Structure formats: structure tokens, C-alpha cells
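Quick one, C-alpha cells below. Sequence please?
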């Protein structure tokens, strides 16, 4: 049976290295994960002497970086390794871009580089994946528990990053229009990240209409003086059979809920835009 060996008390770099091998290197999906003191091998043999054993972030072999002072991570070494080993089975462009971004962040974290020190002092920093893995270890969780949490967390991060990359491309196909509060964008997409990405790019509000269900979500930035009450009233009159929810802040207007079923609107994206347009 194939084995992936990493160090005891695994951190984000160790978890990402294991995750990359198990998720993206053909033939290693069912490999056993072994935790061993850092720098040592499980059989006393050199780290790369057995093709069925991969040492990641430990062992001082090909996939360890502790023997060098270069700006590296085991995750970066594993990413390059699996791309070379996949041969004809290339990663999709989307997967490779997403993995590259993940590896860049892991390398920054592992080398304590490019930190925003003000952000580090904000409580939300404790919610970041590398700190959550550390927290599990601090709760006396086993190495296996910390690793399983890291693997699942990285699956979620990978999904989020791909959705963000897709959203960035979908925004380019959106319809930009003027409102009383500034530039807005409307997009037909089933990708929930579209609204968030649009807000990040500076639009005062973003409209997303799901092409499959017809449902609409409208989100406005918290720092803009947006009030969607008038739009809420007009949509209800124009399409009385649909359901709408206006958030108490007046900055979120939903025709779709993740918590209960709502009747989607029959209004087209252009009709939505006309109501919101200045």
C-alpha cells in the first residue's frame, strides 16, 4: 500500500502537501497517511528510496524544504511534483490556476511573508484555516484529526477559489448601468460568488439572476447609501406572483433564499435593470 509520510503535529503546509498528493496525483488517492518525527524516515532509509512512500514536509527528501533557506514550501514542491508526474493527464486550466493560488498562500503563511500585520491583529484572523488547524492541535486533537480537518478545509477552499475565478470571468459578461448611488452591474449566473466579486470591484450594487431558476439576488455595498425599498415595491407590483424579501438594512433584496423556497420572478434581467437604473 502506498504511504504518505508527514511530520507529527501537522500544520497547513503539511496538510496541503498531503492534500495535493491524495487529491491530484493518480494512484495515490487511497494512500495511507503516516505521522513521523520531522526529519526522520520510517525505515531508516533515504526519503526517496521507495517509490511507494512519499515524504512530504519532512524526511529531507525531494518534497521537503527544511534543508534549504530558500523561499519555498513543501506544498510548492508537491504541486510541481504532481504536475510533472501526471504526464498526459494534465490539470484543467481552472484547477491549475486555483491550486497555484492556494499554494502561493500556503507558501506565504509557512514563511511568514507578505503578512498584513494590521489584519493579523483583527480577531477574524483566528478564523483562517491555518489557525484553525493549529487550534485543533491546541485542543489536544490527534494528528489524524488535525489532518482530516485540514483536508476537508482545503477541499472547501479549492471549491471557493474556483468559484471566485469563474465569477471574475462572468463579471466581464455583465451589464453595467448607472443608478442613483453609482455604477451597478447585472449578471446572469448561477454562481453565488458573482455578487461578492462585483462588490469587491467597486460596484455599488450587483444583480444576479439565476438562468436556471429565474430567481434574483440584489446586494449593495454596506458603505454606499443604497435604499432598495422603491425597487422592492415596484417588483412586487410588476410581478405580484413572485416573492421578495427586503433586508432591514434596505441594501439586500432577495427573490431567492437558501433557507426556504421562494417563488422566482418572471421579470427579465433587463426589466430588473430598468427599475434600478437612474
Amino acid at each position: 500500500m502506498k504511504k504518505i509520510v508527514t511530520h507529527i503535529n501537522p500544520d497547513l503546509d503539511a496538510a496541503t502537501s498531503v492534500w495535493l498528493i491524495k487529491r491530484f496525483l493518480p494512484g495515490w488517492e487511497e494512500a495511507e497517511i503516516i505521522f513521523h518525527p520531522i526529519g526522520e524516515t520510517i525505515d531508516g532509509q533515504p526519503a526517496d528510496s521507495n517509490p511507494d512512500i512519499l515524504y512530504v514536509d519532512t524526511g529531507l527528501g525531494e518534497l521537503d524544504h527544511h534543508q534549504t533557506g530558500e523561499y519555498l514550501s513543501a506544498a510548492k514542491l508537491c504541486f510541481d511534483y504532481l504536475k510533472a508526474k501526471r504526464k498526459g493527464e494534465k490539470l484543467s486550466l481552472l484547477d491549475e490556476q486555483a491550486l497555484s493560488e492556494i499554494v502561493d498562500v500556503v507558501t506565504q503563511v509557512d514563511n511568514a511573508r507578505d503578512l498584513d500585520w494590521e489584519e493579523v491583529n483583527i480577531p477574524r484572523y483566528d478564523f483562517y484555516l491555518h489557525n484553525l488547524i493549529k487550534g485543533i492541535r491546541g485542543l489536544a486533537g490527534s494528528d489524524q484529526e488535525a489532518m482530516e480537518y485540514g483536508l476537508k478545509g482545503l477541499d472547501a477552499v479549492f471549491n471557493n477559489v474556483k468559484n471566485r475565478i469563474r465569477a471574475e470571468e462572468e463579471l466581464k459578461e455583465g451589464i453595467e448601468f448607472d443608478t442613483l448611488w453609482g455604477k451597478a452591474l447585472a449578471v446572469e449566473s448561477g454562481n453565488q460568488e458573482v455578487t461578492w466579486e462585483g462588490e469587491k470591484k467597486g460596484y455599488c450594487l450587483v444583480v444576479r439572476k439565476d438562468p436556471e431558476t429565474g430567481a434574483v439576488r440584489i446586494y449593495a455595498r454596506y458603505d454606499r447609501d443604497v435604499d432598495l425599498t422603491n425597487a422592492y415595491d415596484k417588483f412586487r407590483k410588476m410581478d405580484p406572483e413572485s416573492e421578495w424579501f427586503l433586508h432591514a438594512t434596505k441594501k439586500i433584496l432577495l427573490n431567492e433564499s437558501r433557507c426556504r423556497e421562494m417563488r422566482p420572478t418572471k421579470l427579465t434581467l433587463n426589466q430588473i435593470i430598468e427599475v434600478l437604473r437612474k
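The chain has a mean pLDDT of 95. Strands lie at 3-7, 32-36, 53-55, 175-179, 182-188, 205-209, 216-220, 245-246, 252-254.
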